[in-house]
Specification:
This protein is of the alpha/beta class and about 500 residues long. The protein contains 19 helices and 15 strands.
């Protein structure tokens, strides 16, 4: 099925930031747009704001004057709901309250034609529940745009329990015709992005609450080692602590207080104090004139050892690190034993240097250990995190710092915690994504697309998990579950199944 006919009317109800963005996209998609808002004068002000933004696009040569004029020729304000009768699509972008949305759409249903598509831009409410008040709930679909709408390509097309397949397909095709990248998903708390993304914030908050590292260091490690565009604390400040915490709490309550989605008491305190982030001038960080961002913990220059031992036959990330050390001129004395399971770099004073597998360095039973956190790409990353066991010689930690500095990396030493920072975050994201795919919320391709485009992840969590291997993800979560029993880190059944399959394949080789 194709999308809306060119030139057909799109009504946007609610003319805040999201509504104006949706209207702008629809105008540039070749549609007439009717703006309506219950507050007197807001629709006219929104139309003026859209005209001003289109003028700026012309100034930046991203739009021609003729294209701007053609778009503005189709822009109208509607003073009364009755003026929306000719719309082929109505998108509501009003306040996130179920009763308000239900009443609004129920009233509009009596005004528009029977073949008019109704859409809600809700980010946290159930599309099924919103449609429950409609005479024909089959024509209601979720169209969840991301802010700023003109810039971000992702649109989640959400089907409620009663949504007709034809309505969802038509909405999908319309979003694609507007130049967006739509993904299909079932009506579940948080849809794709706000469901799968919860661990990105939750693990950072837990690490902070346990004094593993400060917000600036956690952000720096996830950016500069994990490859994420923004760290979780600066992203929460950008979104707004109140908004981010409300979404977390909404998803948690919708899942009947499932511990995997539990909100953070540290974030709640920030909200209660009115420290909401950029919009209030202070959140995890201070903003405004003269505000200084705290620096992440970075170790001072340390001389590396001239040589290290290499035990076993390193594979995966450890193999890459050993190659990099040799390329940097560090002499490596190899003990080529066949024990793949116990491969490590031997530091001068007896500690083992290896990549985290989810356990703590102190929990390493075969001797003192220093662990390095996961990185998206060890060659390209600019920072690594290290954690030493309580029984490790400080000289070995210093030696490890020197080795990574020789490789050109900034080094952050963090407290010894299960899964460190990047590894536990990626393991949880991969499992959340696999759980969503297994439950039929969306296809794996759409989940990875949504996470890359909706929240700018450097790699889709399913693709990242597949590269690391289900057994690695499962091992990391198992260590976390042992350290924090209670269900938060229990692996999904789909991860367990995939891990068993990977093991059988390994045996087959």
């Amino acid at each position: 099925m194709t999308g809306l006919d060119a030139g057909s009317a799109v009504a946007v109800v609610g003319t805040g930031t999201m509504g104006q963005g949706i209207a702008q996209v629809a105008l540039l998609g070749g549609h007439q747009v009717l703006l309506h808002d219950s507050a007197e004068g807001r629709a006219r002000a929104a139309a003026e704001g859209i005209a001003a933004r289109l003028a700026r696009l012309v100034e930046k040569e991203r739009l021609t004057a003729a294209e701007r004029d053609a778009a503005l020729a189709g822009l109208r304000t509607a003073e009364r709901p009755a003026d929306l009768a000719a719309a082929a699509l109505v998108v509501e972008a009003v306040v996130e309250r179920l009763d308000v949305k239900r009443a609004l759409l129920s009233g509009l249903e009596e005004i528009v034609d029977d073949d008019c598509l109704l859409a809600t831009n809700t980010s946290s409410l159930s599309v099924t529940a919103i449609g429950g008040a409609l005479r024909e709930p089959g024509r209601l679909v979720g169209l969840h745009f991301f802010n700023p709408v003109p810039l971000l390509p992702l649109v989640e097309v959400v089907s409620g329990v009663a949504t007709d397949e034809a309505a969802a397909t038509r909405a999908y095709a319309t979003a694609r015709a507007w130049g967006k990248t739509p993904v299909r998903c079932a009506d579940t708390p948080g849809f794709i992005v706000n469901r799968v993304a919860r661990p990105f914030y939750a693990e950072a908050l837990r690490l902070y609450e346990e004094n593993v590292a400060d917000p600036a260091t956690i952000d720096a490690v996830l950016r500069e080692s994990g490859g994420f565009r923004m760290g979780p604390f600066e992203l929460m400040d950008l979104i707004g602590q109140d908004v981010n915490e409300a979404v977390t709490r909404s998803v948690w309550e919708a899942f009947h207080h499932d511990p995997r989605f539990a909100p953070s008491s540290a974030q709640r305190r920030l909200v209660e104090a009115g420290l909401l982030g950029r919009k209030s001038g202070r959140g995890w960080y201070a903003y405004g004139d003269g505000a200084e961002r705290p620096a992440p913990r970075t170790e001072p220059p340390t001389a590396p050892p001239a040589r290290v031992g290499v035990h076993g036959r390193p594979t995966g990330p450890l193999r890459v690190l050993v190659e990099m050390l040799a390329e940097a001129g560090i002499e490596t004395e190899r003990d080529r034993t066949p024990n793949y399971a116990d491969s490590f770099v031997a530091l001068p004073h007896g500690a083992k240097l290896s990549v985290t597998q989810g356990d703590t360095a102190t929990g390493e039973v075969t001797g003192p250990a220093v662990l390095v956190d996961l990185a998206l790409d060890y060659r390209a990353c600019t920072r690594v995190a290290l954690a030493a066991g309580d029984d490790a010689d400080p000289a070995d930690l210093a030696a490890a710092v020197g080795l990574f500095q020789r490789l050109g990396k900034d080094v952050s030493v963090v407290d010894d915690a299960p899964g460190m920072i990047v590894a536990r975050t990626v393991a949880m994201l991969a499992d959340f994504a696999l759980d969503a795919e297994g439950r039929g919320i969306a296809t794996g391709e759409d989940i990875d697309t949504a996470m890359r485009l909706g929240v700018n992840y450097p790699r889709g969590p399913l693709a990242w998990g597949a590269e690391l291997g289900a057994r690695w993800v499962g091992q990391t979560l198992s260590c976390l579950n042992d350290a924090y029993p209670g269900g938060r880190y229990g692996a999904s059944p789909w991860l367990s199944r995939r891990g068993h399959l990977d093991y059988k394949r390994e045996l087959g080789r």
